[in-house]
């Protein structure tokens, strides 16, 4: 997968809980924003999804919290495509404190390509499958 970040942002005070750490709902939100940047690199752009009647649905998501993030911390997420199947992909996000380089959390997601009208899974177009094949993580990264 490309080394360019799929998300960059900061932790705002209003994103922190009563003990001063970024609340888990914001980890999920930042991972979600990274999803859409990753999808766009694969050709699953907003215009493609709108015009084709397709969508993406997360069917499994596993998050591991490693280090707390505090108000003012700069956050960067890098995403790695792990597996491509006919109708689904599996990928991992690594969220880091951009100042220290420490991993704050990881998130592994399985997403399914959907026909929004039929509400059923649908095969990826060839162009998406080809783009995904070019972005698969090297085995050592997985």
From TrEMBL:
Gene3D superfamilies: Hotdog Thioesterase (3.10.129.10)
PANTHER family documented for this protein: 4-HYDROXYBENZOYL-COA THIOESTERASE FAMILY MEMBER, BLR1345 PROTEIN
Protein name as annotated: (3S)-malyl-CoA thioesterase
Organism: Bradyrhizobium sacchari
Signal sequence range: none
Segments traversing the membrane: none
Gene Ontology MF terms in the entry: fatty acyl-CoA hydrolase activity
One Pfam family of this chain: 4HBT_2
InterPro entries: 4-hydroxybenzoyl-CoA_TE (IPR050563), HotDog_dom_sf (IPR029069)
